[in-house]
Design a protein that fits this description.
- The chain is of the alpha+beta class.
- The protein has a domain of 125 residues.
- It is 13% helix and 32% strand.
- A 10-stranded mixed β-sheet has the order 1-4-5-6-7-8-9-10-3-2.
- A hairpin with a 6-residue loop joins strand 6 and strand 7.
- The longest helix is centred in the N-terminal third of the chain and has 11 residues.
- The protein is globular, with a radius of gyration of 19 Å.
- The N terminus is likely disordered.
């Protein structure tokens, strides 16, 4: 029975993506299990990473498909998304620009986790010397991208596809949503309250 329980948890527990520079050092014939990488303990072993920009602002909104983005909050700003999220590695430095306040934050990837639903979640912490960023969380798949940026100046949320997204402050997003409408189960509640990239409602 103990062997069955151990095997169940071994094969069903998703593990963070491993860094290529670490994985390549392991013999292909090794039978040992690969433990999840702890960035804090191994960051000295990682080679320098190329700086990545999470997104860039779109200044000409007339190029956007209006039918697809018809219900975007009033204060949202459109951005072009980085098309290589799947190539980001642990310790990759990131620039996160918030066009609403014309400020750029610097972060470093510290966790990459596959979700098992053809999507991946990337978490990043403040880079050395960055004092205004708290946390950056990005979940991406082939057809949807979601992000949450927590800063000392406020929090910001992004919704998009694989190419274009819109960014809005959490305050404006809550103000623009109508929670009185029933969802598909005919129950009126905040269906996003448990999502990690959206702050929990206080009311």
């Amino acid at each position: 029975m103990a062997l069955i329980v151990t095997a169940y948890f071994y094969f069903t527990t998703p593990a963070p993506i491993y860094d290529s520079s670490i994985a390549e050092d392991r013999p292909s014939h090794s039978n040992e299990s690969i433990d999840a990488i702890q960035p804090e303990a191994n960051q000295a072993n990682f080679p320098p990473r190329k700086q990545q920009i999470a997104w860039t602002e779109i200044t000409l909104d007339n190029s956007l498909p209006t039918s697809k983005w018809a219900h975007v909050p009033e204060h949202a700003r459109f951005v072009n998304l980085n098309d290589r999220f799947n190539q980001w590695l642990l310790r990759t430095p990131i620039e996160i620009h918030i066009p609403h306040i014309n400020k750029t934050y610097n972060a470093v990837v510290d966790q990459i986790t596959p979700n098992g639903l053809e999507s991946t979640t990337i978490r990043a912490s403040p880079a050395t010397g960055e004092q205004d960023l708290n946390r950056f969380i990005l979940t991406f798949g082939e057809e949807q991208t979601l992000a949450y940026v927590s800063t000392n100046q406020g929090s910001w949320e992004l919704t998009g596809d694989g190419r274009i997204g819109w960014l809005v402050s959490s305050t404006d997003l809550r103000r623009s949503q109508d929670y009185s409408k029933s969802d598909v189960l005919n129950e009126s509640y905040d269906r996003y309250a448990e999502a990690e990239y959206v702050p929990r409602r206080n009311d």
